[in-house]
Write a structure and sequence with these properties.
The chain contains 13 helices and ten strands. The protein is of the alpha/beta class. It has two domains: about 240 residues, 3-Layer(aba) Sandwich (Aspartate Aminotransferase, domain 2), CATH 3.40.640; about 120 residues, Aspartate Aminotransferase, domain 1. Helix 7 links the parallel strand 5 and strand 6. It binds pyridoxal-5'-phosphate.
Length: about 375
C-alpha cells in the first residue's frame, strides 16, 4: 500500500540495503583497530567521506559522520555558543525543527532573536533583515521545512550571512535526496542531515563543519572522525547513507516537474471532493515548496480521525511532524506560518517519495473521499 509519510522517515532504498549488507559482511571490523582488515574499513570510510563531500560540494575533511540531525544540531549549537562573542545572539527561523530550536534554547537561552517565518529571497537583501543578523553568533534557517515543505532561499541567506560575517547553519535534512545537494556546502557554513529521510538507515547522518572549525567536537571522548566525534564509526550505515544519496542525485532529480504535476492533480481532486479543504502555501510559486509535501487543512474533524480513517484503508499520512505528533500540542510551524490556532488541529501532512506513482496519488485522493464520507456518516 502506498506510504505517504516520507518526511517522517523513508524505507531503506534497495541500493542502500545492498551497500549495508555488503559492508556488514565484508567491512565490519572496527576502523580504529590495528589490523589490515581494519585498515580496509578505514579506507572505505574515507572513500565514503570523499563521495559524500563531492555530492554537496564540500571538502572531505569537513564531513563528520554522526547519528543524525538531532545530534548535529546540539553539537553545532554548543560549538557556536562557545565560539561566539560574549552576549552575541542567535538569529532563528521560528519554524525550525525542534532539534534546532531546543538546542538553541539550551545554549543561547535568552539570546535568541526570531526571524520572520517565511522570508523570500529578495527580503534577505533588505536593511531590516541585515540588521537582525548583524553581530549574531549564527543564523539558523533550514533548507526545507519538514511539515509544510516550505523552501527557504538558502543561497540568498548564505550571501546575506557572508556579507554580515555571520556563520550560517542550514538544516538540510529535508532537502537532501529531494533536490540537488550541489552548492549547499559552499553556501552554508554548517549543515546537518539524517540519512533516513533519503533512503538511508536510521541513526546515521552527518555534519558539514565550517572553515576554521578544526576544534569542533561532539563532546564524546575519543579521537574518531578526525577528532571531531568520539565513538566507533558505523561504517555499514555510512556506506548505505552515501549509496542512497548518490542514487537519488544520479537518477532522480530530473523527475521533479512530473512529480509536481502529480501532486497538483491530488490537490485539485481533494479540494473538489472535500470542499472547504485548504492547502498550506498553495499560492507559493513551485520553487518555494518541496515537490513531495502537501499540508492540508481539512474543513472539519480533528486530524487524528482523518489519519485513523486513512490508516484503516492502508494509507499512512501524518498529522504534522513526527516529533510534534509524539509530543502532542499545536504545531509551532503552522503557528509560525500564521495558520489560525483553530485550524491547526485539522492539519494533515502528506509526503511522498520518488517511488510514489501517479496512481498512488490518485488512490490516496479516493481514500480521502471515502474517509470524508465515513466521517460525515450519521
Ligand atoms: N531536521 C528536520 C528538518 C527534520 O525533518 C528532522 C526529522 O524529522 C530532524 C531535523 C531530526 O532528524 P533525526 O530525528 O534523524 O535526528
Amino acid at each position: 500500500m502506498p506510504y505517504f509519510d516520507h518526511n517522517a522517515t523513508s524505507p531503506l532504498s534497495p541500493v542502500a540495503r545492498e551497500a549495508w549488507l555488503r559492508a556488514q559482511d565484508e567491512l565490519w571490523q572496527n576502523p580504529s583497530s590495528p589490523t589490515r582488515a581494519a585498515a580496509r574499513v578505514r579506507n572505505a570510510l574515507e572513500a565514503a567521506r570523499e563521495k559524500l563531500a563531492a555530492l554537496i560540494d564540500a571538502r572531505p575533511e569537513q564531513i563528520v559522520f554522526n547519528s543524525g540531525a538531532t545530534e548535529g544540531a546540539s553539537a553545532v549549537m554548543a560549538w557556536l555558543a562557545r565560539a561566539a562573542a560574549p552576549g552575541a545572539h542567535i538569529a532563528l527561523n521560528p519554524a525550525e525543527h525542534p532539534c534546532v530550536l531546543e538546542s538553541a534554547g539550551r545554549f543561547f537561552a535568552n539570546r535568541i532573536r526570531w526571524l520572520p517565518a517565511a522570508v523570500s529571497a529578495s527580503e534577505w537583501e533588505t536593511e531590516n533583515l541585515k540588521s537582525q543578523i548583524s553581530g549574531a553568533a549564527a543564523v539558523a534557517v533550514m533548507a526545507a521545512n519538514n511539515e509544510t515543505g516550505f523552501i527557504h532561499p538558502w543561497r540568498e541567506i548564505a550571501a546575506a550571512c557572508r556579507d554580515a560575517r555571520v556563520p550560517y547553519l542550514c538544516d538540510a535534512t529535508q532537502w537532501l535526496g529531494k533536490l540537488p545537494g550541489s552548492g549547499l556546502a559552499q553556501s552554508a557554513d554548517w549543515l546537518i542531515a539524517s540519512a533516513h529521510k533519503f533512503g538511508g538507515p536510521k541513526g546515521v547522518g552527518f555534519v558539514k563543519i565550517a572553515d576554521q572549525a578544526e576544534s569542533f567536537d561532539s563532546h564524546a571522548g575519543g579521537a574518531q572522525e578526525h577528532g571531531h566525534r568520539g565513538g566507533t564509526e558505523n561504517y555499514p550505515a555510512i556506506a548505505a547513507m552515501v549509496a542512497a544519496l548518490e542514487d537519488a542525485e544520479a537518477r532522480r532529480m530530473h523527475l521533479e516537474t512530473e512529480r509536481l504535476r502529480w501532486r497538483a492533480g491530488f490537490e485539485r481532486a481533494i479540494v473538489q471532493t472535500i470542499p472547504g479543504t485548504q492547502i498550506v502555501g498553495q499560492n507559493l510559486p513551485p520553487e518555494e515548496r518541496l515537490w513531495n509535501t502537501v499540508t492540508l487543512l481539512m474543513p472539519r474533524e480533528d486530524n487524528t480521525r482523518w489519519v485513523a480513517q486513512l490508516d484503516k484503508r492502508g494509507f499512512q499520512v501524518s498529522t504534522g511532524s513526527a516529533c510534534a505528533t509524539g509530543k502532542g500540542g499545536p504545531s509551532h510551524v503552522l503557528a509560525a506560518m500564521r495558520v489560525p490556532p483553530d485550524a491547526a488541529p485539522r492539519a494533515i501532512r502528506v509526503s511522498s517519495s520518488w517511488e510514489t506513482s501517479r496512481e498512488d496519488w490518485q488512490t490516496l485522493a479516493t481514500a480521502f473521499a471515502e474517509a470524508a464520507q465515513a466521517l460525515h456518516a450519521p
